[in-house]
Structure formats: structure tokens, C-alpha cells
């Protein structure tokens, strides 16, 4: 495989990286470009494959700790929106079924909210998310344990 083949393979992997939300293909793309440089200096196919494999593996292994720090945890987390049901928040704009308005703040974000049972829930009430429909959360009022 000549250097042009490695470069094309690197570009294909780079495009795959752009189309996916991970940094997985980037390291293999860099490894491919390095193997292409090796091919430019007339090293054998064995050396090219070795450069590709070693550089890609090292890049993946060396960047894992950085990726963990950036994602703030050692284990993969479920999507934030999937974990919304069951979470608690505070009402920031009165939930009023007649006016079809209301906002709840959960972990620093405001969400459009409706009362699960149709009651009006005043500002600063503690609520729990019971279900989610699009960007609208349905909540129920719970007793404030901090008071």
C-alpha cells in the first residue's frame, strides 16, 4: 500500500470522525497519516502497518485519561434527558394549567413544565419530574425536606 493509499484512508477516517460524536476515529486517522509518511520514505509494508498500529494504539491509550476528565467520570453516563424523570427541581414561574405556563429549574436549566394532576403550583415549590413529552416536563409537587 503506497503513501497515497494511507493518505486516502486517513481522510476517510477523518470524515468518519467529523460525522460521529466521538474522538475514536481521529487517532486512527493520525496513525494512517503517519503510516503514509513512513511509506513516503520507502519503508516496507510491514513497517507501515507497525507504525499505523503503534501510533493509533498509543494515541487511544494516552488520550483516555484526558477524555475521562473531560466527561467528568470513569463510567459512561446516560443522556441527561434520559435521567430527567425522577429528578427534582424548583418552580421558577408558577405552573398554571389555565394559562398553560410554568417553568421549573433542574440543575441550572429551566424547563417548560405542566402539573401532572392539573393543580396550580406556586413559585419556589419543590417538584419531581414524572414524565417527559418533547421539551415539556410533567411534575408533581413534593414536600420540601430542607425546611
UniProtKB/TrEMBL annotation:
Residues 82-141 form the NfeD-like C-terminal domain. It comes from the Bacteria. Its main location: membrane. Keywords: Hydrolase, Membrane, Protease, Transmembrane, Transmembrane helix. Coiled coil: none annotated. GO terms for molecular function: peptidase activity. Signal peptide: none annotated. SUPFAM superfamilies: NfeD domain-like. InterPro entries: Membrane_assoc_protease, NA-bd_OB-fold, NfeD-like_C. This is Membrane protein implicated in regulation of membrane protease activity. The keyword Membrane applies. It is found in: Membrane.
Amino acid at each position: 500500500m503506497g503513501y497515497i493509499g494511507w493518505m486516502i484512508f486517513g481522510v476517510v477516517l477523518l470524515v468518519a470522525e467529523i460525522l460521529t460524536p466521538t474522538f475514536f476515529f481521529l487517532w486512527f486517522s493520525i496513525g494512517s497519516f503517519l503510516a503514509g509518511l513512513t511509506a513516503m520514505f520507502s519503508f516496507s509494508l510491514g513497517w507501515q502497518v507497525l507504525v499505523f498500529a503503534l501510533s493509533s494504539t498509543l494515541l487511544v491509550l494516552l488520550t483516555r485519561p484526558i477524555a475521562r476528565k473531560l466527561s467528568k467520570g470513569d463510567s459512561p453516563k446516560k443522556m441527561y434527558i434520559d435521567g430527567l424523570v425522577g429528578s427534582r427541581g424548583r418552580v421558577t414561574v408558577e405552573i398554571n394549567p389555565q394559562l398553560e405556563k410554568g417553568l421549573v429549574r433542574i440543575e441550572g436549566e429551566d424547563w417548560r413544565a405542566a402539573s401532572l394532576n392539573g393543580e396550580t403550583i406556586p413559585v419556589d415549590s419543590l417538584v419531581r419530574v414524572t414524565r417527559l413529552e418533547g421539551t415539556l416536563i410533567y411534575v408533581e409537587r413534593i414536600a420540601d425536606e430542607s425546611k
